[in-house]
């Protein structure tokens, strides 16, 4: 197509690309503009970050939503080259005392490996129940709020059970369900993928969903790296006539006659959109920087100035001479290993991260992608990926001064669970929160979750009432990033929902 595009999408992260694919598939001429100078994808990318031949994921590395996201199912990315790999165990939760609890798509493995036979039986019962309700529950949670039609598929008893589960803190839910410490640390530990601590009000939902999705969709690893998801989305977009332009940083959005009309790139070039603009950016960047504050309600401007971000993220990549020598055999089969020793340990970690301290015993999410995808490392070698949650800035305010030391603390943490680990390290790269933000402006202060995931930042409050259905105060301008409902996670639903709302408005 030639001339002005009908829709411009700002940002080629997963939500931006999903939105672009939906709009292009509907017959619209779509242009995606991406700030990165060489590639689309934002943090959804892969690179040889340590040594040649070792492929490391830049941001997200394993994908519990990938098999069950309504957006990904609808777009059929497998038809565009995306291939998934899976480890025998999806998530392992070891501790220095030698105990371990595991989650797997083969749910029978949970029965004998979840702290105790009684706790295994309870988790098995929960997983089996969830499988029955998931086809209705996930759309109800992920589609444009309020998603009434999928919610109607849940029987009243199921709705009550979901509500009773989600209304508790992660610690209270685990203590009511399980008796062993190994089982009790699983759900609160999974919630720490975001900024939700063990004792937070209504904090159990995130941990619960990540636990049960490990038994349904599983923690899939894309063959070749996380960038394979981006590549498939770009191929799908191009098959419908859409296109991506990299090295195109948007400096502002032009609003004329109270409607979004164009974007202005760094350097001054103006690109006109004849029908709509969808933004895969942070909410504060869109409402107050890209759009002139003078064009927005004062309440929105004030909210964006004080917008609550989630915790920072400190990431490490390793090139290893062999697999991690975990003390617990089950951890050697796991796509993801979570290092959180107990409820007390998770509480201490949460208090330190919220108090602005560097955690002394870091909680870790550790990705072993090369176990199921041997393309990630040379033969006989392995690539390893991990992150911890930290303050956006360390004590003293300078990550450069402390990042290697905190990387050493993470090495020691893994060594305590896998004696001999440090001897297998060939190379290491540490990535601080400030480096993550420099790589992708959406990761403000290293926040992976699109703002805080506290309960009062969800649903009608995400990002701000009444603009929770992807529309903004400016006509023709939509927010389709993780700063909109349903928030964090590589599921594409924020962009998918925003695109469907834009299509509804255009019709």
From TrEMBL:
Which domain of life does the UniProt lineage start with? Bacteria
Q: Which residues form the Amine oxidase domain?
A: 16-383
Q: Which Pfam families match?
A: Amino_oxidase (PF01593)
Gene Ontology MF terms in the entry: oxidoreductase activity
Q: What is the annotated quaternary arrangement, including any partners?
A: Interacts with COX5B; this interaction may contribute to localize PYROXD2 to the inner face of the inner mitochondrial membrane.
Function description:
Probable oxidoreductase that may play a role as regulator of mitochondrial function.
What is this protein's record name?
Pyridine nucleotide-disulfide oxidoreductase domain-containing protein 2
């Amino acid at each position: 197509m030639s001339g002005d595009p009908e829709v411009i999408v700002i940002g080629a992260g997963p939500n931006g690309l999903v939105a672009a694919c939906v709009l292009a598939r509907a017959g619209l001429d779509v242009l995606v503009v991406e700030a990165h100078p060489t590639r689309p994808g934002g943090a959804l990318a892969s690179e040889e970050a340590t040594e040649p031949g070792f492929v490391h994921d830049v941001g997200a590395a394993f994908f519990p939503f990938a098999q069950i996201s309504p957006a990904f199912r609808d777009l059929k990315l497998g038809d565009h080259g995306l291939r998934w790999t899976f480890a025998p165990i999806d998530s392992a939760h070891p501790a220095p005392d030698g105990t371990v609890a595991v989650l797997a798509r083969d749910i029978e493995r949970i029965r004998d490996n979840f702290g105790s036979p009684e706790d295994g039986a309870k988790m098995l019962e929960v997983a089996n129940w969830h499988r029955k309700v998931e086809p209705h529950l996930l759309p109800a949670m992920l589609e444009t709020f309020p998603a009434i039609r999928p919610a109607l598929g849940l029987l009243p008893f199921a709705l009550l059970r979901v509500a009773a589960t989600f209304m508790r803190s992660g610690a209270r839910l685990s203590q009511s369900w399980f008796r062993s410490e190994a089982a009790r640390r699983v759900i609160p530990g999974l919630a720490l993928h975001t900024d939700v601590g063990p004792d937070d009000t209504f904090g159990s939902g995130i941990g619960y969903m990540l636990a049960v999705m490990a038994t349904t969709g599983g923690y899939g690893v894309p063959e070749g790296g996380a960038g394979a998801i981006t590549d498939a989305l770009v191929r799908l977009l191009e098959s419908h006539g859409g296109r991506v332009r990299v090295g195109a940083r948007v400096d502002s959005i032009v609003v004329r006659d109270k409607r979004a009309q164009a974007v202005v790139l760094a350097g001054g070039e103006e690109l006109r959109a004849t029908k709509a603009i969808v933004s895969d950016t942070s909410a504060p960047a869109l409402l107050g920087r890209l759009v002139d504050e003078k064009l927005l309600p004062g309440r929105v401007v004030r909210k964006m100035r004080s917008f609550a971000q989630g915790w920072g993220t400190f990431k490490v990549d390793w090139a290893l001479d062999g697999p991690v020598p975990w003390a617990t055999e089950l951890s050697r089969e796991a796509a993801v290993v979570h290092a959180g020793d107990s409820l007390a340990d998770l509480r201490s970690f949460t208090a330190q991260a919220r108090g602005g301290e560097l955690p002394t015993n870091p909680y870790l999410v550790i990705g072993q992608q090369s176990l199921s995808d041997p393309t990630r490392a040379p033969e006989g070698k392995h690539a390893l990926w991990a992150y911890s949650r930290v303050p956006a800035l360390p004590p003293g305010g300078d990550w450069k001064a402390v990042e290697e030391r905190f990387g050493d603390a993470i090495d020691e943490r893994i060594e305590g669970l896998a004696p001999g680990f440090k001897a297998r390290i060939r190379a290491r790269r540490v990535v601080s929160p400030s480096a993550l933000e420099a790589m992708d402006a959406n990761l403000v202060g290293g926040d992976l979750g699109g703002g805080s995931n506290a309960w009062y930042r969800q649903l009608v409050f995400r990002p701000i009432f009444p603009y929770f259905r992807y529309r903004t105060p400016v006509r023709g301008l939509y927010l389709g990033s993780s700063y909109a409902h349903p928030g964090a996670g590589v599921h594409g639903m924020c962009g998918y929902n925003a695109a469907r709302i834009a299509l509804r408005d255009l019709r």
